[in-house]
Design goal:
The protein has 122 residues and is an all-beta fold. Helices cover 0% and strands 59% of the residues. The strands form two sheets. Strands 2, 4, 5, 6, 9, 10 and 11 form a seven-stranded mixed sheet that branches. A four-stranded antiparallel sheet has the order 1-3-8-7, with no helix packed on it. 30% of the residues are buried.
């Protein structure tokens, strides 16, 4: 009943930019946070950036700080990830995650998108 759909991945040359988008839809009462994770081949999934409604605000992995920017459009239940100065080390499947409260439920749950491939290569 809740879906997260990512878009914007693709192939880009080193030094290039990409913008990822993720839209949350369905029976949603409220969203506490939305963020991006990534998983490279043979590695564990890691946090890239997160934007929360709580006091924690925005959080970035050290490896992307200064290059990536996360932003949210709360009215559209959408989160974006602007990625600049991309390097081959940024190659991974990028997943959107939302921490939200579905309608008719008092608890918070985490939902994940299906992932979008980002490949940085010359």
């Amino acid at each position: 009943q809740v879906q997260l759909v990512e878009s914007g991945g693709g192939l880009v040359q080193p030094g290039g930019s990409l913008r990822l988008s993720c839209v949350a839809s369905g029976s949603i009462f409220s969203i506490n946070s939305m963020g991006w994770y990534r998983q490279a081949p043979g590695k564990e999934r890691e946090l890239v950036a997160d934007a929360s409604n709580t006091g924690s605000g925005t959080t970035y992995a050290g490896s992307v700080k200064g290059r990536f920017t996360i932003s949210r459009d709360s009215a559209k239940n959408t989160v974006y990830l602007q990625m600049n100065s991309l390097t081959p080390e940024d190659t991974a499947v990028y997943y959107c995650k939302a921490r939200l409260r579905p309608r008719g439920v008092s608890a918070l749950f985490s939902y994940w998108g299906q992932g979008t491939q980002v490949t940085v290569s010359s």
